[in-house]
Amino acid sequence: MQLLFLVLLSILNLGVVAQPSQTPRTAAGSDHVSIRPRKITIARTPKLQRDFPNKKRATVTYPVISGLRDPVVLRRVRSLLEFNNIFGYTLKEYGEDTWLDEFDYEVNHNSDSLLDITFRQSGSGAYPDEHQKHFLINLKSGRLVKAADAFQSGRLAALAQAVDQKLQDELKEDEAAVASSKHSDPQDVESIKQAHENLKFEVSNLDNFSVGPRGVTFLYEAGLPHVIQALAPAGRYFFSYAELKPYINPDGPLAHFVR
To answer: Is residue 98 within 8 Å of 52, Cβ to Cβ?
Structure first.
């Protein structure tokens, strides 16, 4: 009896071991990525620290990307977001110069097979300054999303015109605000008009846009000299998906937002 009991117990134990785990496993996918921030403190050379005591260090935070099922696509995404590709500088080069104070990023959208991310660097030389670089990546292909991918090719000119109308409305509002100010003078009004006179949103500007759950924001850099950057428009023009439906490519990466 004792031998039979041991045999039965062994069979039951084997049955328990063979049962599949009931705990769900997190599988890699293609609709979003996993992002882990990595923070680095850049310590400048002893000579730079002596010459610029308020510039001894700079802080860099950048994303480490993982979580895609397709290794080829993951490599492409990582390549696009390689640190040297953001603003064209290596960590070593930042450490050999005193301009940088902080480097960081913001994830605007990470779902629907789209990764939308903005990098920012701020620093100072003769004057404080900040730069931004925006990326919109198709997580199915690992490539940058262009206007020609997302919108109908035959409607790009009309779409650019619609965005330009919002730009021109903003410029007029800014000029009117300067003209109506109690402290303005004719030179102020003339200066802002001259700064704005050549600003226009073209088809070539359509490639720089940010996606969100409610719509798309087209981004525009006026490119004004630093001395008159205060006169630059905000350069962010939002369109809901309902507004964009006539322009969206039915086979493109934004199609599911308007179905």
So the answer is: yes
* Rg of the chain, C-alpha, whole Å: 26
Task: From 124, 144, 164, give the residue that closes a domain.
Answer: 144
Sign, CA dihedral 137-116-118-229, equals positive
176 shares its domain with 226: yes
pLDDT (tens digit per residue) in 201-257: 999 999 999 999 999 999 999 887 776 677 788 999 999 999 999 999 999 999 999
Amino acid at residue number 76: R
- Which SS3 state, helix, strand or coil, does residue 54 take? helix
Cα separation of 29 and 84, whole Å? 27
3 domain residue, yes or no? no
Q: Are residues 200 and 182 in the same domain?
A: yes
Q: Cα–Cα distance between 182 and 242 in angstroms, integer?
A: 41
Place of tokens 């490599």: 75
Distance of alpha carbon 234 from alpha carbon 156, whole angstroms: 22
Q: Which residue type occupies 135?
A: F
The helix/strand/coil state of 51 is: helix
192 secondary structure, DSSP code: H
**Structure pTM?**
0.84
Comparing C-alpha atoms, which of 210, 174, 165 is closest to residue 193?
174
3-state secondary structure 144-180: ECCHHHHECHHHHHHHHHHHHHHHHHHHHHHHHHHHH
Unique residue bearing structure tokens 């179905």: 259
Which helix (H) or strand (E) element contains residue 138? strand 128-138
Residues of the chain with pLDDT under 70: 1-30, 182-185, 188, 227-228
